[in-house]
Amino acid sequence: MDFLNYPQPLADLISGLSRLPGIGPKTAGRLAFYLLQQPQIAESLADAIHNAMENIKECSICSNYTEQDPCPICTSEKRDSSLLCIVEQPRDVAALEKTREFKGRYHVLHGVISPLEGIGPEQLTVSQLLNRLEGIKEVVMALNPTVEGEATSIYLSKLLKPIGIKVTRIAHGLPVGGDLEYADEVTIARALEGRRLL
Amino acid sequence: MDFLNYPQPLADLISGLSRLPGIGPKTAGRLAFYLLQQPQIAESLADAIHNAMENIKECSICSNYTEQDPCPICTSEKRDSSLLCIVEQPRDVAALEKTREFKGRYHVLHGVISPLEGIGPEQLTVSQLLNRLEGIKEVVMALNPTVEGEATSIYLSKLLKPIGIKVTRIAHGLPVGGDLEYADEVTIARALEGRRLL
């Protein structure tokens, strides 16, 4: 797209917005003009970005995003300290917390092992995980059901089982409200495999 | 959506992003996590917003967005100073400039007359328009083909014609590459009305 006709600060704003995922140059242009018309929203957004960059850090124990280190979940006395859930990203913690079902603590890997992208255990928070295993009785794998997620689950379970820790994985199957007809074969096969007595 | 599980600066960032048009809370969450993972992109976006807010102003002659006042188009000697094109928004100027077909100057109304939304000529740049008519021979209306756009075109033409200025309107008809089958009746009627000798 040709930004030649825009004044430079506007062209810079459009180009900054178009670096966001899922936002192309047309949408970026629309957003930029909206921000120019709504200076209050624009300034508060810029401040929110600065503020988040300055104040959000990774918890030194679980690597989740937090304002205080260690994070409220790692320091909470109400959490079961013998149960640990391993997830890929901080947003996965938020998704699990919304269910209010899980009473243990979390460990955020910040990715999965992916040899194609050059990501090995060293690029993830695996060593931090190995340093916090004292008192842990069960580790629940809640990685995404992708090839890399599966491989990472298997890799970690091979590290954890010999120490005598019970390693489990969240169930794969049909999503609630989903439709058998439209589910893929692998999901249905997993759902059959994981069938339970009624 | 429940932001309780997010640290406050992150919740603020998500809420700031979700105030952008077309961005719901889910997308805002995705963008916020992306920005936290890409601090360089985030900081440069925040700077671009601040910079645009500080340095972009409206040209005192044509009301287009500009860094220098008056804007480069209003001061350019190469532009036909007897020809003026009236548009709704600064982005319409950019769209017209991209064609490289128009050699006159612009006037940005920053909206259209809309009694329902309480927008009359006083809320637009109509008085600035009336102050710059010296030497203008033709005014081209390039407002959007909506009810409000049409009404504003008619209102302005009634002001301009008595002064002896030729008032024209850009053609309405089938978009190039468009399909007669899928065009609405009003567009086809306008295309018939505006037919020209081959």
From TrEMBL, chains A, B:
Keywords assigned by UniProt, alphabetized: DNA damage, DNA recombination, DNA repair, Metal-binding, Zinc, Zinc-finger
Zinc finger (C4-type): 59-74
Boundaries of every Toprim domain copy: 82-175
Molecular function terms, GO-annotated: DNA binding; zinc ion binding
Domain of life: Bacteria
Gene3D superfamilies cross-referenced by the UniProt entry: 3.30.60.80, 3.40.1360.10, 6.10.250.240, RecR Domain 1
CDD domains per the UniProt record, alphabetical: TOPRIM_recR
Record flagged with keyword Membrane: no
GO terms classed as biological process: DNA recombination; DNA repair
UniProt KW Nuclease keyword: no
Function: May play a role in DNA repair. It seems to be involved in an RecBC-independent recombinational process of DNA repair. It may act with RecF and RecO.
Family, per entry: Belongs to the RecR family.
Protein name: Recombination protein RecR
Species annotation: Desulfitobacterium metallireducens DSM 15288
